[in-house]
Amino acid sequence: MNKKSQKLNKRNLKKLNDIAHLKSFPTKIKSLNIKYEDFDLFINDFEYFISTELKTPSKDLSLEDKIFEGIINRLDFLNYYKNITLRIYLESQKKPKYFLNLLKNINIYFNSFLITNFEKTISNIIYLYAFNVWVEDNNNMDKTMASIGNAFENINRLKSFLKKK
After folding, report:
1. Domain coordinates of the chain in residue numbers?
2. Which pLDDT band, with edges at 50, 70 and 90, does 156 fall under?
3. What is the pTM (predicted TM-score) of this model?
4. Going by C-beta distance under 8 Å and a sequence separation of 6 or more, which residues neighbour residue 65?
């Protein structure tokens, strides 16, 4: 395979993860594959790699458990590539098209095990909230899991409040 067009895999992503915080990161990803001069294409390939490795929650779970498991599965997997994930996140803050690309890929994941638009909307809201906690959390993700639990508690309180009205 041509050195200038390697596919992302565990080995080269691990190496990239170690340098994702450096200024030289864009040059390093271009040396892996010249098309990564467009960072959006790197994000697409990174998300594709994730999608091939990521497990979806069991269909037998309750909706709340499916969403919880789905979010935790994704963030737990991203722990292996946290520096790359954070780099993408930071670049997405500068260029909204990267953020839209991420949202598209996150939606594809949630679409694989959730049915209604309401379920997908709730999962996206909780995911965005949990992601921001995950950024500061350690690898055991206790704070992240607690934040997801708290989000469900708040949603259930809101539901019960709306039913009373």
Report:
1. 10-164
2. confident
3. 0.90
4. 57
